[in-house]
Amino acid sequence: MEELDAEISSVRAEIENLRKRKRFLTSSLLSSEPIQTRLASAKQAAASSAVELDVSPLIETADAHVSVNHHRIAFSTTTFPFHDPSPHADDASLLGVRIDICRRTGHFTKPYYILLKREGNKKDTTNRVGKRNRDPPRLRVHRHTIPAFIPLDSLAEIYLPSQAAHHKSSREDSDEEELKPPQTRKQDLPAFVREIRRELVAWHLRLDAVEFLKEELAKHTESIPAESEGERIVSLAATALEARYIRLEWADGRVGRFKVSDSGRVERAVVIGDSGRDKALEYALTGGDARVESVLNRLLDTVVK
Amino acid sequence: MARGKTVRVPTAASLPNNLRIPSTTPILTKTLGRLSRQVLIDLVLEWLDDRNVQSFRPYLAQDEAEDRDDNDEASPYAAAKDIEEVRETYRELQDRKGGKREVVEQILDGDWRHGITLRQLAMVDLRYMEDHPASLRWTALELSRIVAEDGQDSSATRAADISACVPRIHAAMFLSNLQREVSSLVKAHYHLVRSKTLPLTFLRILVTDSPYQNSRSNPGTLVDSSRVLYVAFPDSCPYIYTSISSSTGPKANPRFATDTRTLQQIVRDAIPKALSQQQQRLTLKATSLTAKSLQALLALRGPGRSNAANGAFSIFADAALEGSPLDPRPSHTVTPEDFLQQQQQQQQETQKSNNQSSTENTVTTTRTNDFDDSSDSPAKKRRLAVHTRFGTAGMALSPLNAPLDRLDIRLLDPHHDTPATTPSSSHPTLSLTFSGADVIGGFRKLADLGILQPDRIPAWMTGEEAVSVAVVKGGRRVPKDG
């Protein structure tokens, strides 16, 4: 009986997998270049001959989806509208910013999102409508999926200064506020998103570098001569999630750590053994071209030389 | 062998790791008995490990020879000759079935009859906590920078702000700072350990007494669990979690009191000071989140993606809205469950543990591709509405599941029957408390069953605010300081 159940569930799983595969292939096929070009030419022909063209909505959406995907791949940062479903939201339409980052393996990470909300109360809204061309709507970060160690709040303070903060600082000249435009700092959404993306990409590059070094470590340990067994690196790992510092541990008990800059250079390094600092290794870590990728080669040179 | 009488001098040092609590202290049996037999034996074998055995030396035959003249009563447990023999005893216990009582007795009356050290006790407590993640209530606090009063930041400090938004915590440095802060007022024992299962570092602080009182006369105070407080440091985020549930901010104590709460308060107030560095003073801010599950705290106030994207927005945190840009499937034809499963499978593949059974388990067998078909049945409409409001919150499959065990809401809205034209009358407020294993998950189920109307419930019911205590007006959360 149990065997039968197991068999049924495995067959079900198989069906589910095949169904998924079918859907995957269908969408690939529908969004492929030949189909879409033929569709476009058929549409043109239909338009000229005024014949109703019966196209499945699936094909239409496939086209739209492909173009979104192309934008996401090419520009890495894309925007989309989002509707806040809360019935109590004062302004339900949100501006979504989507950041796609490609990893070393060629996979894309989960997209990062920032959802921005228009700032201001009802009065401001009427104002804004009146002179829409001159004043772009002021935005503030409503929800986001940026990890906590990326300084989103401080960046938002710099590039998306809020109206409320301005009001507080310029309370004394409130009389003139109605007459002339307030002297607020301009919001710079592109710069804000650019900085956030820069931090995210730098983080992923650091993560990639740690992974790369871990792979290289196997080769490195092989090329260490047997007589200098103590020079073998036994562990290499990032000290924390943000992977700004990398910790090394040698077989003879020395430990070291170095800081990786946003551009992938070894900025600072310290190696401490039982007899104090190991300056030679520190120079090896930060010396040369100081690239993080070639750290192990430089260390190997100090051993073999 | 007449030993010189020990001279006791009051010191400001912390309680040493090797301070032994007499194994005859009755509460020790209870403390050790909280662990299961298997875990207890594991722990003992960890004590007897070559790296640790110096700190946790068991009672051996040579000790017995020294003690013979001042201790006449024979113990039923023969002292072991060397450490290997002790290890063998516990390995035997491990292979054999039996109650945990015999293990506890073997420890207290046998191999550690000379006393359990404070460090051993701390390890027992932490092991219990790891095995019972819901045994404590944790409060999340935010570490925030104290900005100078004038608010005139130079651009140099601004730049420093950006690069270091998360305070770096160096454990040994932090402990010595903390000790310096509290030593004149509090006598304590500190135990710092990395969690085995979660990205956290636990600090267990046993606050015994002020140094002006003699604690050694009563060893029971060293075992008293009400004197223990825990602080957990999650990786890479500006939050800490504590097991103390008192209000933030230093309370003015009119007179010097040495009850445990005050002492704990002193320690808690010292934590941000100990974490501060020069030119970078930190303070703790309340974040309105208290929960039993550390998993929930990590999801809502942790290093990950879901701190500021919950409830309806959890589809973004879980990336269940759309696939990678290389995915040819239009996103509305793929269920969020599929996206989550796909992510799980990718994770499994990267962990190189792609055994057949685990992939079979993640496949939901009942679900068909009903996102495609255009049936407008009310059940399906409701399911879509629930999904719109709750996102992936409260879904079992979601990796960011954050069960809140308690949700306190204070409603400031005026009651419908009272006319709003009388400003003199006091505003009646309504306090709601929900408790259960997973409050938000429960709301979702109610909405699934059609008891709650998914399109009309306020955002705090969907977990969007990510708090466990909130003041609500007009369906929206009112910030505390506003």
Automatic annotation (TrEMBL), chain A:
Region (Disordered): 163-186
Keyword Nucleus listed: yes
Cited InterPro entries: CENP-O
Coiled coil ranges: 1-28
Alphabetically ordered keywords of this record: Centromere, Chromosome, Coiled coil, Nucleus
Keyword Nucleus in record: yes
Pfam families: CENP-O
Highest taxon listed in the record's lineage: Eukaryota
Entry's localization field: Chromosome, Centromere; Nucleus
PANTHER family referenced in this protein's UniProt entry, alphabetically: CENTROMERE PROTEIN O (PTHR14582:SF1), INNER KINETOCHORE SUBUNIT MAL2 (PTHR14582)
Homology family: Belongs to the CENP-O/MCM21 family.
Full protein name: Cenp-O kinetochore centromere component
Species for this entry: Penicilliopsis zonata CBS 506.65
High-level lineage: Eukaryota, Fungi, Dikarya, Ascomycota, Pezizomycotina
TrEMBL record, chain B:
Biased composition range(s): Acidic residues: 63-73
Taxonomy, superkingdom: Eukaryota
Region (Disordered), start-end ranges: 62-81, 323-382
A Pfam entry, by short name: CENP-N
Residue spans of biased composition, Low complexity class: 341-368
GO process annotations (BP): CENP-A containing chromatin assembly; chromosome segregation
Protein name: CHL4 family chromosome segregation protein
Organism: Penicilliopsis zonata CBS 506.65
Phylogenetic placement of the source organism: Eukaryota, Fungi, Dikarya, Ascomycota, Pezizomycotina
